[in-house]
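Q: For a teaching session next week I want to show students how multiple molecules come together into a single three-dimensional assembly. I've collected the sequence lines for a complex. Could you give me the predicted structure tokens for the whole thing so I can convert them for display?
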Amino acid sequence: MPELPEVETIVRDLAPLVEGTRIVRVQVWDPLLAAFPSGEDFNRRLTGGIIRTIRRRGKYLCFELGQGLLWLVHLRMTGRLVAQLTPMERHRRAQFTLDNGGALFYCDLRRFGDMWALWPGEERHAKGFIALGPEPLSEQFSVQWLRGKLANRKAPVKALLLDQRLVAGLGNIYTDEALFEAGVDPRREGGSLDQEECRKLVREIKAVLTEAIINKGTTFRDYRGGLGQAGGYQDQLLVYGRGGRPCPRCGELLQKDRVGGRGTVFCRRCQR
DNA sequence: CCGTAGACCTGTGTGC
DNA sequence: TGCACACAGGTCTACG
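A: Of course. Below is the structure for the complete assembly, covering every listed component.
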């Protein structure tokens, strides 16, 4: 569910509520949730920890606790991390009680979400995390970087953009939106994009993500921010979720296909 | 190394 | 109303 703008929104929502607080109680009811360490060891590591800062890296939430302990949370498809006073959600999987009277509640319908509690040097246990590519809103994510990564690749450009090692934080919604804005057909072989097309893609990826953050993310179904609120960017989507409806630019009916194993919406006339 | 299909899980929407 | 099936914001692994 959550892509970069949604995770960024959650971090900004939660920061003022949790930074500087101590975790006084950890309850985990879903054994699938703690990826490392598993079971009671996970609870023990976090209990008593003081949350110094919370930040985002790709689609990961990163809580930096005292002594260098790093608490990572990945929400995958339907995970939520919310601070509410009375959140008896149907799919509550964990609760982190804070010493300021508040708490963090983790809810997840599909149970794909993962958490890690890592001491310095243990980052290798979070394989996806250490392999993340550059942040798309940083200078490291440049035309040269994208071109280098797409060179000689035969996979569809959309599949490559979803690879978190190429760039960290894009998901199905914003990839479709950025490819539309850039006028690039998602089925194109990565290696077939020229300099100008890469330039447009980099520009539109940054623009779409920035605008989505301003609008506090996209609530297509399940997503909620850290305060339980829906996002606002769903009203600005141009193609995602709009297959069979007219292209907002040319009027041609938008096509829905499967590309790189994911549902993909694009305009056959505007995207080449 | 590369590219793709299937797996993981639970629910919702659609068509018959 | 019931049932079967496709699909869902994301990775992982196995396989050719």
